[in-house]
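Request from the bench team (R.T.):
"We need a structural guess for the complex before ordering more zinc ion. Sequence and SMILES attached. Just send the tokens back."

Command: build protein-zinc ion structure.
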Amino acid sequence: MNNKIEKNCAVCKHKIIVSQGGNGECFNCGWYNNILGEENENTVIFPNLISLNKAKKLYKENKPFKPDLNDFLDGLYCYREMQFSYNNLNCCVFVRGEEQTTIEFGWSPNHVYYFKDKEDFIKNAKIDNDYVRDIWDKVENACYL
Ligand SMILES: [Zn+2]
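Reply to R.T.: structure attached below.
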């Protein structure tokens, strides 16, 4: 029984094999093809870290599919648990609160901080003396938990 189908990657158009639901990773560009992401092409949807339209643009420019801080936080609100590394610190970011807008951010029991929403995080989140927005280009392994 073969329940896989062939399709063209939504980003790079290479022929790839995906599940019948249209989901599967592209071996050529690394995009995780998924129907929800194709229907919402400007939204960051798990398991990708950027939107489909941004992936198409970066692919054309020959750049990696790296999320900016805004993409990362959109992914956070989609999935609720994310992480990244910076200077050997493993930073975790969670969505908390009744309204599910509060962001919990930390890298150890003594370093846990809360932000009321995405804007508050972008404006005020720091690692030691550095604003996260200023060091974002240096963070590594930004991904879903
Ligand atoms: Zn592809």
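Two things stood out. The chain has a mean pLDDT of 95. Residues 9, 11-12, 14, 26, 28-29, 31 surround zinc ion (CB under 6 Å).
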